[in-house]
Amino acid sequence: MALLExxxxxxxxxxxxxxxxxxxxxxxxxxxCLLGRNGTxxxxxxxxxxxxxxxxxxxxxxxxxxEGTITRRQGLKTALLDQEVPTDLSGTIFDVVSQGLGERGQxxxxxxxxxxxxxxxxxxxxxxxQAELDRLTHELDHGDGWLVxxxxxxxxxxxxxxxxxxxxxxxxxxxxxxxxxxxLCAKPNILxxxxxxxxxxxxxxxxxxxxxxxYEGTLLFVTHDRMLLRKLATRIVDLDRGELRSWACxxxxxxxxxxxxxQAEAQQNALFDKKLAQEEVWIRKGILARRTRNEGRVRAxxxxxxxxxxRRELSGPVxxxxxxxxxxxxxxxxxxxxxxxxxxxxxxIISDLxxxxxxxxxVGIIGPNGSGKTTLLRVLLGQLEAQKGxxxxxxxxxxxxxxxxxxxxxxxxxxxxxxxxxxxMLQINGKRKHIIGYLQDFLFSAEQARMPVKFLSGGEHNxxxxxxxxxxxxxxxxxxxxxxxxxxxxxxxxxxxxMEYPGTLLLVSHDREFLNNVVTSTLVLEGHGRVxxxxxxxxxxxxxxxxxxxxxxxxxxxxTAVKPxxxxxxxxxxxxxxxxxxxxxxKLPARIEELEHQQSQIHDRMSAPGFFEQDRQTIEEATAxxxxxxxxxxxxxxxxxxxxxRDV
Length: 648
Hints:
Layout: E1 4-11, E2 19-26, E3 31-35, H1 42-50, E4 52-54, E5 60-62, E6 67-72, E7 78-81, H2 93-98, H3 103-120, H4 127-141, H5 145-158, H6 172-185, E8 190-194, H7 202-214, E9 218-222, H8 226-232, E10 235-240, E11 243-247, H9 251-284, H10 295-310, E12 331-340, E13 350-358, E14 362-366, H11 373-381, E15 388-393, E16 399-402, H12 415-419, E17 425-428, E18 431-434, H13 435-440, H14 446-449, H15 458-469, E19 476-480, H16 488-500, E20 504-508, H17 512-518, E21 521-525, E22 531-535, H18 538-551, H19 579-607, H20 616-646
Parallel strand pairs: 3-9, 3-10, 7-8, 8-9, 14-20, 14-21, 16-19, 19-20
Antiparallel strand pairs: 1-2, 1-6, 4-5, 10-11, 12-13, 12-15, 17-18, 21-22
Helix pairs in contact: 3-4, 5-6, 9-10, 19-20
């Protein structure tokens, strides 16, 4: 028997039903991933599986479908890790985790508080505390209290949490880890995870992935993390236009099969619409339709009209288009020995950072939560002044910034007012467009465009931010955690847009596959202010990091340590620039611009229609010219970098 089974379940609020006569089951030991666009009802389905809603005061109310039945195995327990972290979490980590046990959890929390107060705060001789500890110990003795207490301790230890830490001051990622521990304490038969990787850093996501792979219970989860999905899911369930379909395959095969199914559906709908149009022509003739022998055909036409009217069309994809402006200078950001900390006695966030970010680079920024990724962005952009070293920006920089904390949105104002304050018309890549039409490209209806932002879901919030971001022309895009809450389709479209973006990209993300597909290099915050640069994306960083660790020589033990020989050697460091070299350095940027312009002109000429239909000599001359310009450009770059390094 399945742990849970839904039969002909329908559920809706306003508008078309989110779930329409769906059938679903989940068996013991399965790891089922639920996919679907934002707003299609994934969270609603999760709550129906759970069977109840929890209010802010902790009380619960049943949550049942409008129609249909849900059959649960006797004694079935579920626990839900919601995608939104509550804003009112308080108490210690032990307090919150033990809440997953209900009343028994409160008893454990009380015992933990009293024993901690006596042991740590110096109140071991307080008689009232000793009496309270004796009472709690007695209650724990008369049940399975000690066994449960040990299990709570084990879960907290496995999660690498400090039981006495204050939850209120933790980062969003650490709060999610605490809430996962709370869910596990309930020992659920089905663990429900709604976007579990939101706000987790890359190390935490990798840890969660390994933890869930070793978890022996049953999982139903929603995620936009394709790497997690590929490794974890044993089955995929797709929610599309109120219908639920199960796919017993991996994610890549699911994409192929669903595309084939959508194509077959489109062909079937086209044939149906053609038949309906023919019948509409026939009925308008009037006379033949009124004859008795054709009444069946009239009834069939009415049924076809009803079928067509009830059809739920597949909404088009998000249509994102980044506005570009004139190219920036070749150099975007140059950092030499840059350092930054928030206080004189605080550990530095950045220490001795040296890097060059050039036009067209796509740089990923990786690091644990709280390590300073956003601070690093702000220092590189000049929003925070570097306290040490030298920071230089290139020319003609037009920067657009995506803010992970969504501080750019006013919850009381409408979507339309947030995206385009004060005007209904936008200029998008030289074309005038009405704000409602523009927002429809981001899947917002006219009604939603006039809705206050505070009523939107997390994924819709991010789509508003993307819509606002792309109203501004830019040649430098700065994106701080842009993938949170986005559905898979929108995420992949954003990925394609960034891969084709002609400007420079600075990207903070915990999405490993997103980093792999988009960035060309990574800056990794490795602790104690050290920021190290690696070529490639997330997987490339892992490989290079392993190679660095493997290549580090083992430190000799004290018994075998050899005192190094000290030898004075003449410095082979770079010499200062001569006067002539300084003049040369000043002229090189103009020469680089000139050569890049020549290169661009040759590219345009060779990409014109019919170019390769010309005579062989013309084609060879253009190819040779391009090669000559590229070789000279490479030489000029090398010379410029050499002189820049010595310009001290």
